[in-house]
Amino acid sequence: MAQFTRIQVVQEMKETGLVPLFYHPDIEVCKKVVKACYDGGARLFEFTARGDFAHEVFQELMKFSIKEMPQMILGVGSVTDAAAASFYMQMGANFIVTPVFREDIAIVCNRRKVLWSPGCGSLTEIAKAEEMGCEVVKLFPGDVYGPQFVKGVLAPQPWTSIMPTGGVSPTEESLKQWFDVDVICVGMGSKLISEKIIESQDFAKLTNETQNALSIIKSIRKQ
After folding, report:
1. For residue 30, with 0-12 CB atoms within 10 Å meaning exposed, 13-18 middle and 19 or more buried, which class applies?
2. What's the Cα-to-Cα distance from 55 to each of 161, 177, 197, rounded to whole Å?
3. In the chain, what are the helix, strand and coil shares in percent, each to the nearest 5?
């Protein structure tokens, strides 16, 4: 069962503005990555369940998170159907992120009052998702659509909350272009948790990178 309500998840997205996302088949690597992000100030993390037996890794990661990082809101991404969403929610997933908009996932998540963030690529999809109770829309891949797409959507729908994922970098230039058009938060994968960091096991660097990204976001929002 989720440790955090969907309202708490949305509030944290608004507060911190960052959702790191990562997958690795080695549970020990995942633990170190999530802990490094947590130590850097991140309070949300998306485990992108893309590999075989990913559920086994997530199950252990969730137990570790509850014990060692009580404020971390751990969710699951790359969920493609209602059965998978239900399965991960049974293991405690606090939010569900999907690559596309699917009504079956919306139904099972709403039933448990767990936040779900569907990948949408048009105003029609976004509107339909919101009719189904979506609080935060995932814009993926973000670098394909770009900040101007967000600006265009929010003109007629200022109530829409958008989280771009893909192509977002932990630099002031990259983050500023997104937060200047009023995204609620950004999802960041390999640009933050790079292969170099994983290969070198330099998790102190990841903590610093996370802390720096959060600091930049906070600074931009004050402007």
Report:
1. buried
2. 29, 35, 24
3. 50, 15, 35
